[in-house]
Amino acid sequence: MRQKTQLKTCIMAGAFALLASTAARADCTDTNSPFDDVYCDIQVFHQADHQLNGDYGSLKKLLNPAEQASLKQGEVAWIKDRNAQCTQSDNGYEFVAMDCAVSMTNTRDDFIKSRERECASTGCVDGELAKEKD
User: Cβ distance 35 to 43 under 8 Å?
Assistant: First the structure.
């Protein structure tokens, strides 16, 4: 339990340092150390997650309560799948494969944007909102 708390503390400290760091770049091509790589990866993930959250909110506004519940069901399932696929354990520590998390987040965002276009133009298709992905 203490190691998980330390990991969370390290992740939060890294996120705050990232926000203050000008060395981290979104394309991650100009990093100078493994720590810079981590900061950059966090920034790239944060950008992808922010985009997904915005698109999710836009889609949700188009939906009635039953459709919102289906969307949430799919989102919860997707989060569990992302966490299972992108988290690794080693000697009691948990690690997140950021490239996996970014890739899955971008794929989920593409799915959400497709549902938004579908719902706005022809109406939502039954069962699509509860899916994790296409």
Answer: no
| Domains of the chain listed by start with CATH number | 2-121 (1.20.1270)
**Buried b or exposed e, range 80-112, using 16+ CB within 10 angstroms:** eebeeebeeeeeeeeebebeebbebbbbbbebb
Cα dihedral value 42, 46, 52, 54, nearest 10 = 180
* 110-119 contact pairs (CB < 8 A, 24+): 110/134, 112/52, 112/55, 112/56, 112/59, 113/55, 115/59, 115/71, 116/55, 116/58, 116/59, 116/62, 119/59, 119/62, 119/63, 119/67
pLDDT tens track for 56-112: 999 999 999 999 999 999 999 999 999 999 999 899 999 999 999 999 999 999 999
**Cα–Cα distance for residue pair 134/114, rounded to 1 Å:** 9
Which 3 state secondary structure label does DSSP give 129?
Answer: coil
